[in-house]
Write a structure and sequence with these properties.
CATH superfamily: Hydantoin permease
Strand content: under 5%
Number of strands: 0
Number of domains: 1
Radius of gyration: 21 Å
CATH architecture: Orthogonal Bundle
Helix content: over 70%
CATH topology: Hydantoin permease
Bound molecules: phenylalanine
Shape: globular
Distance between the termini: 42 Å
Number of helices: 18
Order of helices and strands: HHHHHHHHHHHHHHHHHH
Length: 445
């Protein structure tokens, strides 16, 4: 059980920004807008929002509740909700969860590294270092390794400083900057011709696009975006004070995450059509909109290039925004194995952050060396399989195994009246039956 000196978030606001920081990441800025554009615009937005409310939100409450009840890393937290004979299952699930979190971080750090490169490149070009600037934008093993290590270094640096001093402090600094940069860029992009076409593609529903694959994409997107299934929210929940109202806190986090995904759509798709106006091709030969990778690394930079001097600035601001969003997510991913090592193996935090961060960097390096077979494979295995399957298991544990009185008692700590309210009438049945069935349906449909 928790020691009296265990770290906590210092304020509710700090927690919300840290958890929203974990949730808001490349999934929102990079994934959501292109998914929406390719899946019927407004239709995808509606289905996605329904997935967030109907599936991701209840599971977010479940993960936060397990963590706060356990007041410990995922190994202990998951063990604490299981009956004494089956605690090994908790250990096993936590190990799978922290391995999955490490795998997500291993590819995330490569992507984020490229973004760091694209952030630095315009600055270097502006001061005349054209060679270095081009190197940073050209795919090579050396560049990929260098930038990945730079990003991992930043991630380790935050996590080694602890929950309040590292994670909370940096999230509360970075998240407002992120929102500010969004506002600046959206304001700018809408002064450019073509922006409105992007807005139309994003918002106007195309009902011919409703099919099972759309629901599957929306579910995957919601899981990834809310950082579910890989114990990140469980660990953050374990640092929450006992008087925090869990359903409300989770709702705030889900709302911020969804709002930022939406705002990202208001930036990215208009930017794409502005790029088209500048002569950049944004559709593939088969009529599909360029993939998100092409969009971020080809289309947008090509557009910034056509803008002359202001283009350098706009490009750097845009990539700074992406890097910030990625960093507040990567720290939550690294915190999962680090919290387990600190508490289960009694390692000092500094040492645990460097060793585990080093091991994940080594994994990233392997992916960089064997990029073609490994990169996509790790993404699919960790986000399309591990995340939803673990999420399903957590729902089953909370719904069927964890003692209902204990769940209620935990929720009542931040909300004494909860037993009489609508949330408690719906949520337990919901995680018990509806979430698992919905997930199985989407899996097999
Ligand atoms: N939610 C993050 C994003 O949208 C990614 C993430 C997934 C972070 C799982 C932590 C855990 O980019």
């Amino acid at each position: 059980m928790a020691s009296a000196s265990r770290a906590q978030f210092s304020s509710r606001f700090g927690f919300i920004l840290a958890a929203a920081g974990s949730a808001v990441g490349l999934g929102n800025i990079w994934g959501f807008p292109t998914q929406a554009a390719n899946n019927g615009g407004g239709v995808f937005i509606v289905v996605y929002t329904l997935m967030v409310i109907g599936l991701a939100y209840p599971l977010l409450v479940a993960e936060l509740t397990i963590g706060r009840y356990g007041q410990a890393n995922p190994v202990q937290s998951l063990r604490s909700i299981l009956p004494s004979g089956s605690r090994w299952l908790g250990t096993l699930l936590a190990l799978v969860g922290l391995t999955a979190a490490s795998c997500i971080l291993s590819f995330y750090a490569i992507l984020a590294g490229w973004l760091v490169g694209y952030f630095l490149s315009p600055i270097l070009e502006a001061i005349g270092l054209t060679g270095v600037s081009q190197w940073l934008e050209t795919f090579s093993i050396g560049r990929n390794l260098f930038l990945m290590l730079l990003f991992m270094w930043a991630t380790i640096h935050v996590v080694k400083s602890g929950v309040a001093e590292g994670i909370e402090r940096w999230s509360t600094r970075l998240m407002p900057i992120l929102v500010l940069l969004f506002v600046v860029l959206i304001g700018y992009i809408f002064t450019q011709d073509g922006a409105v076409d992007g807005l139309k593609l994003f918002l106007i529903p195309d009902f011919s696009q409703i099919h099972p694959a759309l629901i599957h994409s929306a579910m995957g997107q919601a899981f990834f975006s809310l950082s579910l299934g890989v114990c990140t929210m469980m660990v953050y929940g374990s640092y929450l004070k006992k008087d925090a109202n869990l359903p409300r806190t989770a709702a705030e986090v889900a709302l911020i995450d969804t709002a930022i995904a939406f705002i990202a759509g208001l930036l990215i798709l208009p930017a794409m059509f502005v790029a088209q106006n500048h002569g950049v091709t944004i559709y593939n030969d088969d009529g599909q909109l360029a993939s998100s990778g092409t969009l971020v690394f080809d289309v947008l930079p090509a557009m910034f290039d056509t803008m002359g001097a202001p283009g350098y600035l706009v490009a750097s601001i845009f990539f700074a925004l992406m890097v910030i969003a990625a960093l507040t997510s990567s720290i939550s991913l690294l915190e999962v194995p680090v919290a387990a090592a600190v508490e289960e193996l009694s390692q000092p935090r500094n040492y645990a952050a460097w060793t585990i961060g080093g091991m994940i960097s080594a994994l990233s390096a392997v992916i960089i060396f064997y990029f073609d077979p490994l990169f996509d494979w790790v993404i699919v295995a960790s986000t399309e399989y591990a995340q939803p399957i673990l999420g399903l298991i957590f729902a089953l544990l909370v719904g069927w195994i964890w003692h209902r009185d204990q769940v209620l008692a935990e929720l009542q700590k931040g909300n004494p009246a909860i037993a009489a309210g609508w949330f408690w009438k719906i949520w337990p049945v919901y995680v018990r039956v509806v979430c698992p069935l919905l997930m199985l349906y989407v899996f097999f449909a």
